[in-house]
Design a protein that fits this description.
36 helices; 9% strand; alpha+beta; 782 residues; 5-stranded antiparallel β-sheet
């Protein structure tokens, strides 16, 4: 299929400007991403005809490098229909032809020559002579002039083409491609000779935003820069002078350093950017621009960034397509951008609490600063405050329209992933993000969270490896370690942790995973080391204390577990993270309920709900109350969850079914419980819990006197130790197996399972109700 880059199509209230890459509705621009736009143009070229899926693949992915064509085409069609207000069931514009392809249904399209190319030179005879054929296809210019006129016209066109070719050749000779698609770039700090501190850090952040819009360039991440500075003996927040930036560039195997400077000349400001070869120190390219005054500096910075992108080898096409003005992508306020830059620096060091006030200041200075809300939301999420995270992420989503394409991907994916928790929608955004920005490490890093919530750990490992390849820093090590653990690949997890440790990649998140690794390795001393590291660190120690509490409970040392849980709650409150404190209380409530201490479970659940009603806290508290026999309260909480989070994948397909299934068991309806839990099957391995749907299903089969089926469920828990880790059902599943084998008549295996449980609980507190039951049941087997 052929595309005339000069064509403008019109149908209904819509207009498609091919060269500008725009879709207009009644004169107003409609946001449409690159791939859906190209799909629309392909369909418009042959209205009324069926365009096969193979033709679309050839047209949209000519290099055949794309892996999941069907999924991406489906997403692109969905996005296109959404933009056109079309309906797949009753299409006005785009019809799906099952097993064949798609057809554009509009009765006619009205192509015109856009005012580009030779039309820009003046009154070209071509500018108004295109019509639509009867079948709506792109027409050809009607010619009413003499052969002589056409000869002169052809001569003029050929002359212009020749001149243009010479110009292109000259430019190519003068500006050879500086970078390849495998090279990375380091940004130095701007040399600020104005004396105005507002430019310090701010201009580098602004330049970073502009360059990150490029699908061609790849910036070295701030986190990786900070880690490399530490290896160089420099503080993580060292000023990136040209000399330090060049050394960073060499150490990280990058190709180019971009040095910037700003100087004041009267009321005007001169901004200069130079690209320097890291190895040789040669200047490869430079740009400069003048700003009329201070208020014009950000606009000028955006312009010089665009010029540098082209000089570094990026095509003019992508520079134009992905070039949202800096003040539109971020803020018009230099002071707000400065605060934002300080927040980004803190976030890169995983100093989430320190980042919060900087993002808050940026928002106070500019209440419409979308990315500041997005980054603030992510900081709250990392601090364990999902309600505040959701509020700010939602605000970013509402303000997302002016920002760049890359920032839209970030905002939309995090909104669907963390706020509404519509995991399939989040996955669709990540697919489009990968197509537009295949070199952006932030995308696979964020996408791993969706994989963990879906329980798709093999896919998450692939994503984390891609993230690490693009950005080998502490976050990459964390994700690799996390997925190796969940897949129970302990040897690879151990190697990953040792490598991160050797390179001084350290963080509370990595320490939490290190504790889990030591637990799975039965290394008590290693677990104690992680707890000792966290002791006294506000916002950190509560996490390790919570893990210690679970470990104590895993062995039946419930009194010790209670004490550690209380310490964790107190620590979280001291750190002013009530949401985290509430989660600690809810976990303690569920533990008590599982062990048969109903009064204690109800008290802890009430304390948790008094601190927060987030979906995590409310779900865990409701399940605890269901196990504790408070069916009325548990049912009310489950209904509230279902109503408050109608699109939430995990609430609707994991949490609520598990609670309601346990309630059905309380009403002696095991068949109903098993039926309810069908909804949880696709997500039962989710990291949202520790296989609680599986545990409840196992109990339901026991109640239904189906021993064989119960064995399969409890065995599933033992088959996934990397997901369960030290959750209490890891031990209770042995008791479940004993009961299931006894029900099946296999006395030998039943006794073995009971013995395993009693061995783990050999030092358990003797007054735990479920322990007393287990001993009585075991005695009957003798």
């Amino acid at each position: 299929m052929r595309t005339d880059s000069r064509v403008v199509y019109q149908f209904g209230p819509f207009e498609v400007n091919v060269p500008a890459g725009e879709l207009l509705k009644s004169g107003r621009r409609i946001r449409l991403q690159q791939l859906p736009h190209r799909l629309l143009v392909a369909l418009l070229e042959h209205p009324g005809e069926v365009i096969s899926r193979e033709e679309l693949r050839s047209r949209l992915w000519p290099d055949d490098t794309f892996v999941d064509f069907d999924s991406s085409l489906r997403v692109a069609v969905g996005k296109l229909r959404e933009a056109l207000g079309d309906d797949a069931e009753n299409p006005r514009y785009i019809e799906t032809i099952p097993k064949r392809g798609y057809r554009f249904l509009a009765p006619k399209s009205y192509p015109e020559l856009a005012t580009s190319g030779i039309g820009e030179l003046g009154a070209s005879p071509l500018s108004a002579e295109t019509v639509a054929l009867d079948d709506g296809r792109t027409g050809a210019p009607l010619v009413h002039r003499s052969i002589w006129s056409r000869w002169w016209m052809l001569t003029a066109v050929l002359l212009l083409i020749a001149v243009a070719g010479i110009a292109v050749a000259f430019r190519t000779f003068r500006h050879p491609k500086v970078l390849t698609e495998k090279d990375t770039v380091v940004l130095a700090d701007f040399v600020n000779s104005t004396g105005d501190p507002v430019f310090d850090g701010t201009l580098r952040q602004g330049l970073s935003v502009q360059l990150e819009q490029s699908p061609f360039l790849s910036m070295v991440s701030e986190g990786r820069i900070q880690q490399t500075l530490k290896m160089m003996g420099q503080p993580a927040d060292a000023k990136l002078t040209p000399a330090i930036a060049r050394e960073l560039c060499l150490r990280m195997g990058s190709a180019v350093v971009l040095d910037g400077s700003i100087a004041q000349i009267g009321r005007r400001y001169l901004l200069t950017i130079k690209a320097v070869n890291c190895s040789s120190g040669d200047s490869l390219a430079s740009t400069e621009v003048q700003a009329s005054d201070k208020n014009d500096v950000l606009d000028a910075l955006g312009k010089t960034a665009s010029a540098m992108r082209n000089k570094l080898g990026e095509s003019l096409g992508t520079v134009r397509r992905f070039d949202t003005p800096l003040e539109q992508a971020t803020t018009t306020s230099l002071e707000a951008l400065k605060a934002y830059s300080l927040g980004r620096k803190a976030s890169a060091a995983s100093e989430w609490a320190a980042a919060v006030p900087f993002y808050q200041r940026a928002i106070r200075l500019d209440p419409n600063f979308s990315m500041a809300y997005a980054r603030l939301g992510n900081s709250y999420r990392m601090l364990g405050e999902p309600i505040l995270a959701a509020e700010n992420t939602r605000k970013a989503y509402e303000l997302r329209e002016p920002v760049s394409e890359l920032e839209k991907f970030y905002i939309e994916s995090h909104y669907y992933q963390q706020t509404t928790v519509e995991l399939e929608k989040a996955r669709e955004v990540y697919e489009l993000w990968a197509q537009s920005y295949p070199r952006d490490w932030a995308r696979p890093s964020a996408e791993t969270a969706v994989s963990s919530m879906q329980g798709r750990y093999d896919k998450g490992l692939i994503e984390s490896r891609e993230e690490f390849r693009l950005n080998p820093n502490g976050d990459g090590y964390y994700d690799l370690l996390y997925f190796y653990l969940r897949l129970n690949r302990l040897q690879e997890a151990q190697s990953t942790f040792e490598e991160a440790e050797a390179k001084n990649f350290d963080s509370p998140s990595i320490r939490n995973l290190a504790y889990q690794l030591r637990f799975l390795q039965n290394d008590a001393a290693g677990m104690s080391q992680q707890v000792a590291w966290a002791t006294g660190k506000l916002g950190v120690e509560d996490g390790l204390l919570g893990l210690e509490a679970d470990t104590a409970a895993y062995s039946g040392r419930l009194g010790q577990a209670r004490n550690l849980s209380r310490q964790a709650v107190v620590s979280a409150k001291r750190a002013e993270t009530p949401e985290v404190a509430a989660e600690r209380e809810a976990n303690a409530a569920l533990r008590e309920a599982l062990f048969g201490n109903t009064a204690e479970a109800r008290e802890r659940a009430a304390d948790a709900l008094g601190l927060s009603n987030s979906w995590r806290v409310q779900s865990r508290a409701a399940l605890a109350l269901a196990f504790a026999g408070d069916t009325e309260r548990a049912s009310t909480l489950a209904d509230d969850l279902a109503n408050r989070f109608p699109d939430h994948t995990i609430v609707q397909s994991y949490e609520v079914p598990t609670i309601r299934a346990k309630l059905a068991l309380s009403h002696d309806d095991p068949s109903g419980a098993i039926e309810i839990l069908q909804a949880a099957v696709p997500y039962e391995l989710s990291d949202a819990g520790a296989l609680y749907p599986v545990y409840v299903r196992g109990q339901a089969y026991l109640a239904a006197h189906k021993g064989k089926e119960a064995v399969a469920e409890f065995q599933k828990i033992h088959d996934h130790p990397g997901i369960v880790v030290n959750a209490p059902i890891g031990t209770l599943a042995h008791l479940g197996l004993g009961r299931a084998y006894a029900l099946s008549g296999d006395k030998t295996k039943a006794k073995s399972a009971y013995q395993h449980f009693l061995t783990i609980w050999i030092d358990a507190d003797p007054d735990i109700p479920i322990l007393k039951q287990a001993k009585a049941e075991y005695a009957k087997l003798q």
